[in-house]
Amino acid sequence: MGSYTISVIHGDGIGPEVGVEGVRVMQTIGAKFGHTFTFTEYLAGGAALDKVGVPMPDDTIKGVKDSAALLFGAIGGPKWESLPHHLKPEAGLLKIRKELGAFANLRPAVVYDELLDASTIKPEVLKGTDVLVVRELTGGIYFGPGGITGDGANRVGINTEVYSTAEILRIGKVAFETARLRRKSVCSVDKANVLVSSQLWREVMIDLSKSYPDVKLSHMYVDNCAMQLVRNPRQFDVIVTTNIFGDILSDEASMIAGSIGMLASASIGGPVGLFEPIHGSAPDIAGQQKANPLAMIGSAAMLLRFGLKLIAEADAIEAAIRSVLKDGLRTGDIAKPGEKTIGTKAMADAVVERLKK
Ligand code: IPM
Ligand code: MG
Question: How many CA atoms lie within 13 A of 81 on its CB side?
């Protein structure tokens, strides 16, 4: 029976409408298991730019650091796209990941049998897929030195991929430890045939694997991995990779799960974890009750599992998600053509109802 302060950032687009449902599900689980969750809301992204002129206010960072975990909606939208780089909502997200030391981003892509038809990929290829992408989140080309210099035709834009042995080791450990709880196989994805940063990545993974003799380590170039993910996704258990490769491969993996509206994520490694759906702010459907809240509800489950170590509570939420899918409830993104769909709140209601049973 615990008492926890949870930070909430609703953000922009569909962030607020899925966010309230994530909070509601956590309140329900709190009541069921006898925990008290106190939610504190903070500004970030476009919402913060409009109010205070920066995408990640210091107050937000301070408040989040003082809490047990952060439930994050989504940020960004056309209104803020043309701002200078350091003021874009995305810059705010990178800042809080870095500030929290959240170097490990876990992005599971699980195919539910009920949603086999929701993907554009053939059901027989997908059936039984359960991949976890472990993406390095606070290093690599996202954070390496760079800038734009020069004039005219000589103007150059530079970003640099930088990884230290220590950074590779710590993300590698997360991958191996997590694989131990799953099917004990890690595929390290790099571009070691071209990039020396990847060559170091691979050497460190091989060294580290000696401490995990029970886990099988394999390697794959990122281009091949992009192909293998749609050719035969069942071959993967845990994929560990760099920040930018993980960004790209996790979007690809989301299509395996049928819809990006299903995928949750956990960003951990520091004292306070950040938990967010990977779908982004989807401004085109914002405010219309069309968004699938299950990615956000799944993120609340990851918050409980990885942030607060409340395993039974997380299991209960995931079982409720499975149950609503089994009962045929569908938001637009996961419905077959002609199938009846329900809205954001109605889908969350169905989850809450099952949790109360
Ligand atoms: C993601 C997003 C972010 C990223 C953007 C919004 C900064 O694409 O979480 O995958 O590139 O990390
Ligand atoms: Mg991305």
Answer: 5
Contacts with 309 (C-beta within 8 Å, 6 or more apart), sequence order? none
Per residue in 9-51, pLDDT (tens digit) is 999 999 999 999 999 999 999 999 999 999 999 999 999 999 9
Name the residue with the closest Cα to ligand 1, atom 6.
90
Ligand 1, atom 5: nearest CA belongs to which residue?
Answer: 90
Q: What is the pTM of this model?
A: 0.95
Query: What is the rounded distance in angstroms from the CA atom of residue 326 to the CA atom of residue 328?
Result: 5
Average pLDDT over residues 222-232: 97
Catalytic hit among 42, 191, 290, 333: 191
Residues lining ligand 2 (ion), CB within 5 A?
Answer: 247
* CATH fold label, 1-105+259-357: Isopropylmalate Dehydrogenase (3.40.718)
Give me 50's structure tokens: 């409009």
Cα–Cα distance between 103 and 36 in angstroms, integer?
28
Residue 258 pLDDT grade (very low, low, confident, very high; cuts 50, 70, 90) = confident
Task: Indicate if 191 belongs to the active site.
Answer: yes
Query: Residue ranges of the domains in the chain?
Result: 1-105+259-357, 120-147+156-256
> Which of 75, 93, 241 gets mutated to test ligand 1 (max ligand atoms within 8 A of its CB)?
93
Q: Span 120-147+156-256: which CATH code?
A: 3.40.718.10
**What pLDDT digit, counting tens, does each position of 73-120 carry?**
999 999 999 999 999 999 999 999 999 999 999 999 999 999 998 888
Residue-wise pLDDT tens digits, 304-323? 999 999 999 999 999 999 99
Residue 290 CB contacts under 8 Å (≥ 6 apart), including other chains: 331, 332, 343, 344
Task: Measure the CA–CA gap between 62 and 162, rounded to whole angstroms.
Answer: 28
